[in-house]
């Protein structure tokens, strides 16, 4: 008699990576998605990567990727099959380096939050996480990355959402609509604000 495969051996873990420029709403959306995510957890790199000094160089981002990957795999091992994370990918090369740290059977959904610059700048000034003008000027020198959305050999589902005119609840609803593997319709939830 042949034994059937253990479902845990073929289980797919899901990861939702939220990216976007500073002020696009990554941390806000990660927090808001969690109450809607069954068997889920949130790992926001902005919480994990707080250092002083904060060099923001390649070595720092390598350390941050490894720490996020370790947390993600630990949560999967504990049964949280849907991990929400973000705020640490600068470009497609960063994604590829991070992806190598995850099991091959991982399903990846990459959500890029897009927003007009004027709205993004306003959000940066009015949000709870305060930054200095010097910091914002430094970040603004970094050119907008397009490699994540234009990658031809990507192994993720790309989901670009223009949040310029959307509130948090509508942004969450659109993300949920794009990922029925996690958010089985007709799922209703009240996103955290």
Write up this protein:
- It is a single chain.
- With 193 residues, the chain is α/β, with parallel strands linked by helices.
- 40% of the residues lie in helices and 17% in strands.
- The chain has helices at residues 7-10, 26-33, 45-48, 58-77, 92-99, 117-126, 133-140, 147-150, 168-178; strands spanning 14-20, 40-44, 82-86, 107-114, 156-162.
- Strands 2-3-1-4-5 form a five-stranded parallel beta sheet, with helices on both faces.
- Helix 2 (26-33) crosses helix 9 (168-178).
- Mean pLDDT is 85; it is low at 1-9.
Overview in brief:
40% of the residues lie in helices and 17% in strands. It has 193 residues and is of the alpha/beta class.
Keywords:
single chain, alpha/beta, globular, disordered N terminus
Number of helices: 9
Number of strands: 5
Q: Which structural class should the secondary elements be placed in?
A: alpha/beta
Taking the sheet with the most strands, its summary is:
5 strands, parallel
Radius of gyration: 17 Å
Content of β-strand = 15-25%
Distance between the termini: 54 Å
Secondary-structure element order, N to C: HEHEHHEHEHHHEH
Net shape: globular
As a percent range, the share of helical residues equals 25-40%
**Average pLDDT reading:** 85
Going across the major beta sheet, what is the strand order? 2-3-1-4-5
Q: pLDDT below 50 for ≥5 consecutive residues: which ranges? A: 1-9
